[in-house]
Structure formats: structure tokens, C-alpha cells
Design a protein that fits this description.
Length: about 350
């Protein structure tokens, strides 16, 4: 219900309604552009749904205002801002910039809606605050998707290795994997003590820094930080993406395992840099009771554009099924690390994934 204001206040109420009317249009327009960017620019069904939901919920919140009052307050002729635009508003050099500036525009307008509605219809204000926070989450997810789609564009073969028999054996394995064209190497060893794990991680850092191979530590942001790894991989029961990022900072990669489409959607909103998707097939490396399998691969491929690596029992024999299900990125252990000729096994999988 709008407030019945005393005469002196009714003047400010009119100004507030005018600001609300203008901000409502700007917010809706900005969100529409963002939605079109994630739909046509990123081809991301999940982000498109999120953007659309924010826009629809904005429409619903705006309906709580009397449209008659808003129309009466509208006075474009007297709006001193109507013909004022800065050079920055005009300059657009790429699609991403269009999305960013429209997100900012929507966020600023949501803030205006939040503040001015406090004056005339305070009970509506919290809806705009909530929408503003949702737009920040959306921004984070769009940024991560866009940046990682290019940062990890060529990353198709991801290999998990343990610490090996000893350091020489480990170094030999890593040399072959790098030579075989592995894009990401993950150090995953739950048996060795922390000292040895860190020593392997530091060794791996040295070896990968002379190549284009990324180096990720499994489970342990602390070890990743100490070894200056490129990032960490966490599971659903481990530290969250947010907590891992709090340890490692914004520039490092944080990947998360997902076993359902809901978890994959959540990972996007949590700001993960990539996701593991599986288990796809029975694995010799780890045992599972349940297999979301190729159905999950299909679901993720259909709606998520964050780099996604199918994992679990993948080999040169079945990788085509993963590709046909829609993902061209896989994470493997046994098929490569336990092969007789590691380099050859990696190079072979790599060439299938890159369709060479
Ligand atoms: C790339 C990638 N995807 C999934 C996993 C599995 O992680 P998690 O579920 O935490 O299981 P553990 O590896 O910790 O046993 C992964 N490590 N890497
Ligand atoms: C750690 C992990 N999480 C899901 S499957 C898997 C092991 C992958 O190894 P492999 O490729 O040998 O099945
Ligand atoms: Mg884990």
C-alpha cells in the first residue's frame, strides 16, 4: 500500500515515484540484455534461466507498485537526465562488455528501486535488495563461465596421478604425461604423508611451469597454496568452492566434483572454474555405488558452459560415448597413468578428444 503523505512530503513522493519509474525500466532493460548475452553469446541454458528468473521476479516486484501512480509520476519532458549520456555509455567494443555494463546498469537501478521505495512503499524495498544480490551472483557466474571458457578452452585431457613409488618414478611419469600433451595434471594421493605430498606438489610445480600444463592439487587448498599450484579440486563433502577460494585467492582455479545436474548448477552459482562430472563408468581407481553415467554427461552438456570434465572409468575404448553424449573434456587416471606407454596413451586420448 502506498503511503498517504502530508503535502510537503507529497512533493518528494512524486520525485521518488519518478525515480522508481525510470529505474524500473532501466533495470528491466539491463537484465534483458544480460539474458540475451548468456543466451546468444554464451549459449548457456542454465545462466539464461537464471537471468530470466531474475527479470521475471523484478516484474513481479514492480507489480506491487500501483501502475497508475507510476504513470502519473512519469514526466519524461522534465527529466533532465534523458538526453545525457557519457562517452563510456556509448563505447562498446565486445559482447562481454555489453553484458558487464548492462549488469552494472541493472544493479544500480535495483539500488535506486530499493532506496526510493523505502520512501513511498517500504515493504517492497527488500525485494529489490534481494534481486540486487541475485544479480551479483549472476555476474560472478557469468564472469567465471566466460573467463574459464577461454582460459581452459584447449584443456580437454585432464589426468589424475598419485605420488608414485618414489620421486624419480614420479618425475618420469610426469615427463611422459607432459610430452603426451596432457592439459591438466592433478596430484591426488590420499595415502602419502603431508611432507611427501608437498614435496611431490613442489616437484610437479617445477616441472609444469616449463610447460603449458596446468597443475591442480586434489582436496588440499593448503598444499596447493604452499606449492603455488594453479588450483585445487574439491569434492561435495570437502571444503566449499568459496572456502577453497578464500585460501587460494581469486586467480587460482577451483574445480568441484558434481554427481547430479543440481550440483552442477550449484557449482556455477558458487563460482567454480570447472566441474568434474561423474562417475561416468565403473572405475579401477575408486569404487562407487551409483553412476549418474552418460545421462548426467548429456544433461550437463545441454545446459552448462562452464568447462566440464567427465570422469570415472574413461578410456580410449569408451571416450567416444562421452563425446557423443556432448562433452569433449575428460579426466582420467587408470587409462593413462597405469598404461604401459603413458605418453602414447595420453597422446592417443588427446588426439581423440581434439578430433585430430
Ligand atoms: C576432475 C576431478 N573430478 C572429480 C574428482 C573427484 O573428487 P572427489 O569427489 O572429491 O573424490 P576424491 O578425488 O577426493 O576421491 C576429482 N578428483 N577430479
Ligand atoms: C577420483 C575419481 N572420482 C570419480 S572417478 C575417479 C577416479 C578416476 O580414475 P579412473 O579414470 O581410473 O576411473
Ligand atoms: Mg576430494
Amino acid at each position: 500500500m502506498s503511503r498517504d503523505l502530508p503535502p510537503s512530503d507529497s512533493h518528494s513522493a512524486l520525485h521518488a515515484w519518478r525515480a522508481i519509474d525510470a529505474a524500473a525500466n532501466r533495470a528491466a532493460e539491463g537484465l534483458r540484455v544480460v539474458e540475451d548475452f548468456v543466451r546468444f553469446g554464451l549459449d548457456d541454458r542454465h545462466l539464461t534461466t537464471l537471468a530470466k528468473n531474475v527479470r521475471h521476479d523484478l516484474t513481479a516486484a514492480l507489480k506491487l507498485f500501483s501502475s497508475e501512480t507510476l504513470h502519473r509520476a512519469r514526466d519524461t519532458q522534465a527529466d533532465v537526465g534523458v538526453n545525457v549520456s557519457t562517452e563510456a555509455e556509448q563505447a562498446r567494443t565486445n559482447l562481454a562488455q555489453i553484458a558487464t555494463s548492462n549488469l552494472k546498469r541493472a544493479q544500480q537501478s535495483l539500488r535506486t528501486l530499493e532506496e526510493f521505495s523505502k520512501l513511498v512503499q517500504p515493504e517492497v524495498s527488500p525485494y529489490f535488495e534481494q534481486l540486487r544480490y541475485r544479480s551479483y551472483t549472476l555476474e560472478k557466474a557469468i564472469t567465471a563461465t566466460r573467463e574459464n571458457a577461454s582460459r581452459l578452452a584447449d584443456a580437454r585431457l585432464y589426468v589424475l596421478i598419485d605420488g608414485g613409488r618414489d620421486e624419480d618414478h614420479f618425475a618420469e611419469l610426469v615427463t611422459q604425461l607432459i610430452a603426451g600433451g596432457v592439459a591438466i595434471l592433478q596430484l591426488r594421493d590420499k595415502r602419502i604423508d603431508d611432507k611427501t605430498l608437498l614435496a611431490r606438489a613442489q616437484h610437479l610445480r617445477k616441472m609444469t611451469s616449463e610447460s603449458s600444463t596446468f597443475f591442480i592439487v586434489n582436496d588440499r587448498p593448503d598444499v596447493a597454496l604452499l606449492a603455488d599450484a594453479d588450483g585445487v579440486h574439491v569434492g561435495q563433502e570437502e571444503l566449499s568452492v568459496k572456502e577453497a577460494r578464500a585460501v587460494l585467492g581469486v586467480d587460482k582455479l577451483v574445480g568441484v566434483s558434481t554427481h547430479s545436474i543440481e550440483q552442477a548448477r550449484r557449482a556455477v552459482l558458487d563460482g567454480a572454474d570447472y566441474i568434474g562430472v561423474g562417475p561416468t563408468f565403473p572405475s579401477q581407481t575408486k569404487s562407487f555405488d551409483q553412476f549418474p553415467g552418460l545421462d548426467l554427461v548429456r544433461q550437463v552438456a545441454a545446459e552448462i558452459r562452464l568447462p566440464a570434465f567427465a570422469i570415472g572409468g574413461i578410456s580410449a575404448e569408451n571416450v567416444t560415448q562421452v563425446i557423443e553424449a556432448g562433452l569433449c573434456r575428460v579426466a582420467v587416471s587408470g587409462a593413462v597413468a597405469a598404461a604401459e606407454d603413458t605418453q602414447k596413451a595420453a597422446a592417443n586420448l588427446r588426439s581423440i578428444l581434439h578430433n585430430d
